[in-house]
Specification:
There is one protein chain. The protein is of the alpha/beta class. It has a single domain, classed as Rossmann fold, CATH 3.40.50.300. The chain is 53% helix and 14% strand. Helix 1 packs across helix 7, helix 2 crosses helix 3 and helix 5 crosses helix 6. The two termini are 13 Å apart.
Amino acid sequence: MKVILLGYMGVGKSTLGQLLAETLDLHFIDLDSYIEKMEELSISELFERKGEIYFRKAESIALEEIIAKKEDFVLSLGGGTPVYGNNMKNIIEAPGVTSVYLKLNIHHLVEKLFQQKESRPLIAHYTDKIEFEEFVRKHLFERQQFYYMADHVLDVTDKTPSKSLENLIELFNLNT
């Protein structure tokens, strides 16, 4: 089984991905961590030194490498990964890959991200919550068309990670 979790930043892709991988005894891969090892730079350093276009190319290459792996895995994508290049097309067409869009209610998403903004370079500069919410709404609206191309949609609003894991496993009709 090859599972790819996608969705907006802050929805819990990495947390749920690690839990799913542990439960199914699969290898967990966080795409950003994979790129950091590949490039020997943090994501923020990569953006700073080489720019977003370079990062997006590296991201596409890393995604293709991972999808081509013979062994099973759980992969957590960056929030923007499905939007760039042919990434979503490659995910959809990859044999043996199941993709899941983790969806979080906009209100919960804004609340969570506003509290975490210092640790997220893309949104760290926002100080006004209303302006921040407008950004998230617009950004999510632009990205959702790609997210909804996933094989499954799992709403994680008001769910604990363990409940989301239970729902994800039910989605796959797995008995663990």
